[in-house]
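Repro:
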Amino acid sequence: MPKNILAKIDVQTAFMASRCVIAAEQLKLFRKLEGKELTAAAIGRLTGIKGWRQRPFLAALMALGLLKKRGELYRNSALAKKYFIKERSKYWTEIYSGECIEEYQAFSVLDEMLTSGRGYESISGIKRKNYLDLMQENRAWAKGFTNMLYHLHQTVAKALAENVNLRKYNKVLDVGGGSGVMSMALVKRFPHLIAAVLDLENVCRAARELIKEQGLSKKIKTLTGDMNKDLPDGYDIIMLCDTDNPDLDSLTRIYNKLPDGGLLILVDYFASEDLTAPFLRLMWQLRSNRFWLMTRKEAKQIVKMAGFRNIRMKNIFDESWMIIGQK
């Protein structure tokens, strides 16, 4: 968002601006307006926005730099086209904006969470299913979530491929690999590689579609399985990307599966030593029921404890860190 607009938003009322953006996404306003110039009434008919609320809501989006107006006609701004259309898929609109609403509701009782020691679910009485249960039970949700992460992780995947040398290796096991976006980037950079994405069946189904779209079905296969159980043999690279904090048991199991000289690759948003970054992970920690933030130093240490050597850590993109260890 432009700095001149941000400068006008008070930190204590910034949630109002954020909530306007989330509402627009939930109503699919930017996608429905793409390539069009429409009146407020026409936008209201497309999105369901009623009566007098049309003009002030659209004016709020203009004030945030997301809409432009010519006469009585509204259109997406360059910022909205870039952020909500070009850089984000329809799945981002459907899944991520819904998650933002859940987080908004949780943080509305943050003071009570802090002083009572209780989590949001306990305070609200709302029991939210975890991601694994949703993935297993809801095929459509699994597809949407997997596709959202495919688009979200494009830049990180490219950065990973540019920061590793895998010419001496042959087979990658992408554990909890979701859409397969990381494996895609690696096999494109190193065409001799073949890869397997290990994940839940509904996730693998969505991943196979994406892999096929990229013309990589002969290079990347999917394996249905549980990343917390026994892993398949025959891979000289085992990779974990954005799969939550690694634990010693999991890393030891990976170590035992790799051949001598085999490679472990971790990519995640590990915390700074003072826990102030990444900020979004810090916010998620506040609404959690347990302390789970792992610092970069702790992550590197646990890789060492699992038996790996020649350990290398690098900030590869924004707040994403890569850790590589060799058996």
